[in-house]
User: What shape does this take?
Amino acid sequence: MDRLKLEFPTLARKEDAIEYIKEFHADGSRLDGTNRLEQYINDYPSWLKRLDEDLKKEPGEDRVPAETYFLVRESDNKIVGMINIRLTLNHNLWNFGGHIGYSIRPSERRKGYNKINLYLALCICEKHGIEVVLLDCAKDNLGSSKTMRALGGKMIYEYFDSEKNIVIQNYVIDVEKSLAENKERFAEMIAKYPE
Assistant: This one.
């Protein structure tokens, strides 16, 4: 059984992070939950600096405080996913994006990793006092909606986004309830709980 952990991005992960993004490009997959890593593929140190700044951001209309992590498989030390956790929401994030954005690399999908990714993110949300998280996904992103529902996500509404030309579904998860209901389920799959 694979064991996973969240890890803050570091300079030592530069080549792994670039490889992660390149796999998405090669697959033609959307780059959700990467906190714009693809825009810094040629300047990874600047992305790390941006992540550090994100931790200290004051809430505003353009940015909010956020934490970004790699999801790492313990057995081979490989980045299998990413997650971005917004610690508060501004007007834009209430309308699109919510508290959490995540991704799993194309070659590692359908292994249940994103459920663990989201579970670990909920652990972090609890530490920050976030009681209910808002998440969204495209209606046709069945893997993402399945992940949210598996951790107790309830769809509250859906709407057509004319800019993106897609239907968006919004979900909420009760953090404390989800963590309590899923703790035993994921205990053996978690290499290290977030501190």
